[in-house]
Amino acid sequence: MDPRFDDIAADPRNSVFDVVFFPDRVYHAQYLNATRSERYRYYVDEVRGKADINVMKGEVFLDGIKVCNILRIEYRGARLSEVVREANRFLGDTVVANVAILADDGSRVVARSPMQYDLWINAYQVEFWETLEPPAGKRHDYKVLDMMGFGGSITRIPQFANALKDVASIQRLELAFRENDRAEPSGPLIPDGKSAWDNYFHRNVQVPNTQDPSSDSNTVDRSAYEINFRRGWFVKRARDILPVRYRNGMMEPSNPRCRDDNIIEMRWVLQQEFGGTVVFFHEVTIPPHAIEGTHQHIGSEELYYIIEGNGVAYMGANDDPGVAADNTIPTEIRPIYGLDPAPCKKLAVSPGSVIYTKSGGIHGIENPNDQPLRFVAFLYHSA
Fold first, then answer.
1. pLDDT tens-digit map of 151-185
2. Region of residue 272 (phi > 0: left; psi between -120 and 50: alpha; otherwise: beta)
3. Beta bridge pairs of residue 58
4. Which tens digit of pLDDT belongs to each residue from 264-289?
5. Domains of the chain
6. Phi/psi zone of residue 299: left (φ > 0), alpha (ψ -120 to 50 degrees), beta?
7. What is the dihedral of CA 223, 229, 235, 239, to 10 degrees?
């Protein structure tokens, strides 16, 4: 991080903007692998995070001389540990990372590597170095040598050597993680094909491959987390993005409001591009007299912000205490997607209205008018 940010952050006039300059990680200078010896120093150029994952690109120096470029991956394993527990096993000291490096020239290289659990960061980690050879006339410190080599916390993957020569050219990674081949705590080998994986948990992305409503071809499966090192996106006009169209979205066939022409549109602006736990940002169009079914969120949160038109939103009757206590807001029993009907508050919405739904909350939206109703939505995992 540029040291000038220290002065910016310390200026009382800028305290309200601290979140803008919040460091990617607070331990770059101290707890990376080779810093076991004070002879080594890292320069971290880029950091990206997604769910349980952090990835760093940078350089490592020995006695002030550059050794090579590096790529470091950290993984906390919370999701994988849940899947492993379902098989009555525990995660041990090692997990396996499946890593694909995608460079800006379109090349793609794939390899697997063990990751070792590190108490310093409470996560599994591995550093891929461009080379393990020290600079001319130097020797690696004995405090670091035992970490180096095949399966070590500092390792060299031959397939990655060319990509690491120009680490700035690495634009994207695809990452998936699985438990080690040997089960904990009993120790037997896990049969082939039975290892537990955290590979994006069967999530997918929505792509307008066709304008046929609810076509399977618009749902594209993903089997890895995507880490993107691109620094920015500009969308001049989201309305120019082709929508994905859905017939009777979030509605059971038994819902009496289902009909063939009940079609809503979603323009998927950003999906895998997000870090953290954000899943998507999209613009939704509810055409005249169309409905998005009322549904309950479990393990996710979503925010709707109305930007155009007027309509009716439905919220679980007791989700917002202020709304629940307002007897002027009508309550009606609504079909809930996949669940039993439930009482909901019927809320008039217009540009500037916000509906924010936490895990366990219920929402839906309807356009009873003759003009389109549009809103933008963020969804993210709540844990």
1. 999 999 999 999 999 999 999 999 999 999 877 76
2. alpha
3. 44, 70
4. 999 999 999 999 899 999 999 999 99
5. 31-198 (no CATH), 204-222+230-381 (2.60.120.10)
6. left
7. 10
